[in-house]
Design brief:
10 helices; 3 strands; about 290 residues; mainly alpha; three-stranded mixed β-sheet
Length: about 290
Amino acid sequence: MVGISKNVVKTSEKSNDIKSTLAAYTAAGAVPLGALPAQLLAANKMSKISRNLDKDTVEIVNKAADDVLDKLTNLGKKGVKINNFQNAGINATGLPDKVLEIVNPLFATANGKNAFFTNKPMPAANLAANTVVVNRNKLSLSTFHELGHAHNFNNSKFWKAMQKVRTPSMLLASTFALLPALTKDIKPKEGEELTTKEKINNGLRKASPALAFLSMAPMLLEEGKATLNGNKWAKELLSPDNYKKVAKSNRYGYASYLASAASFALMAFVAKGVKDKFANKNEQKAPN
């Protein structure tokens, strides 16, 4: 009977642990959905500044961006090109354009809601390596920031490395964000101390929100450096009023990256809170 009772307790504990993990995962997974409106708002604010420019100003801004390539920097000699990307193909998905813009960066770029620098060729989109990809009619102000990325990649080993570790750092951030859902705080048994491994487990869980945010540092730093580059060139080449528009556009763009980093930290915080709540509830129910 005692053996059966122990097995029942172990089975119940395992079931509760699975439930708490699933609940923590679900709650943490909902966080990016909650952060998405803030990111979309920042992106829309950024694109709106460019869309409100008159035709003459757009031409002035684009000419200044070309001068960054050929006069202010060595980017033109490095082979950097600006692709005026206006056609991502026909929307055959049946999804509304606004939805497709969220899931397809190329479609968003063609519609003036996104821009990027690619250091690798993208044959499917007919894009060469070392290219700034932007709709120059709808998002001209963002060209300076993307040229900043091109400058980082072509002229600095450090900032080039920051670009290359961008994807791994995001994977690390997501790992820390979900770590609390897969683990639980370990409490010492009566008369015993925690092992080093157990202390590390507890420490990582406690620090997971901060570690998730800090894992995004390569992206935040490189994005910030690209913005500083772009703002500097815009200030040299544009009127004070147009320079301010570039800087304001870049602030909104950077805000979207901060929101992304913050969402990873919040995921970890939520996952830990839900998992710990289940653990405390199960402890109270456990027989003495």
